[in-house]
Amino acid sequence: MQEIERSAGSVEEAVEAALAELGLSEQEAEIEIVQEPRAGFLGLNSSPAVVRVRASVSAQRSSSETAEGEGPADEVVEEQAEAAAEFLEGLLDAMGLDADVEPVTMDGTTYVDLWSAEGSEGMGLLIGRHGHTLDALQDLVRTVVQRQTELRCQVMVDVEDYRKRRRSHIVRRATEAARRVRKTGRPEALDPMTAFERKIVHDSVADLGGLETASEGEDPNRRVVIRRRQ
Fold first, then answer.
1. Residue 130, Cβ density class (10 Å: 0-12 exposed, 13-18 middle, ≥19 buried)
2. CATH no. for 72-160
3. pLDDT tens, position by position, 58-117
């Protein structure tokens, strides 16, 4: 079974690089966090995130065998969703925001949804410009969940369905670009995206076949390039 280690500034970036190299989706892989990123004093002695990723044949078999019921993987995600929801409820109370917190699974991804009880205006603060505040909230929840469960966080935080709408937009843009690349043979670079969004592009293009993707550049300008497979 092929196994590789990759390092990057964040766990998500390291995982993204490993999955892209192995040609796997996250559901087809076993991911182990070898080292969390650490920021050194004044930028000195900092350490990157390191992950170990391998193809999981047994995980795929287990998934098909338990498709009609909950298996171990489902229980892990459910536990993480509950931990995330509990943390977010406490955070919202401390911020004085009246909101509902609801775990939900869509398209293979488990979200912890936040919905304002009084309209979406106040919740916009949790999204921020281009979703930057929501990304920071995701990082905070990821840290809390991983410390509690000692496993990589597999749940996403969403506010007023912002991430789901964004996901649909990214899939549409990636599909359109992939079709152009397939027709013309010319590589095409998409707009800069977060690690989570780049992962959506990798998976979407992989489903089309005959193409390959790679992330290039440094954050916050890191983007996915789509090419014909050689």
1. exposed
2. 3.30.300.20
3. 444 444 443 444 445 788 899 999 999 999 999 999 988 889 999 999 888 899 999 987
31, 67, 140 from 147: Cα distances, Å: 16, 29, 11
Which is it for the CA torsion 28, 30, 36, 37, positive or negative? Answer: negative
Type of residue found at 194: T
Tokens of 207: 């489903």
pTM: 0.70
Tokens representing 119 are: 């309209």
CB–CB of 51/34 below 8 Å?
yes
Provide the token pair at 84. Answer: 């995330």
What's the DSSP call for residue 40?
P
Any residues with CB less than 8 A from the CB of 219 and at least 6 apart, and which? Answer: 9, 13
Averaged confidence pLDDT in the chain: 84
**Domain map (residue ranges) of the chain:** 1-69, 72-160, 162-230
Q: Where are the alpha helices (DSSP H) in 1-131?
A: 11-22, 57-65, 72-95, 124-127
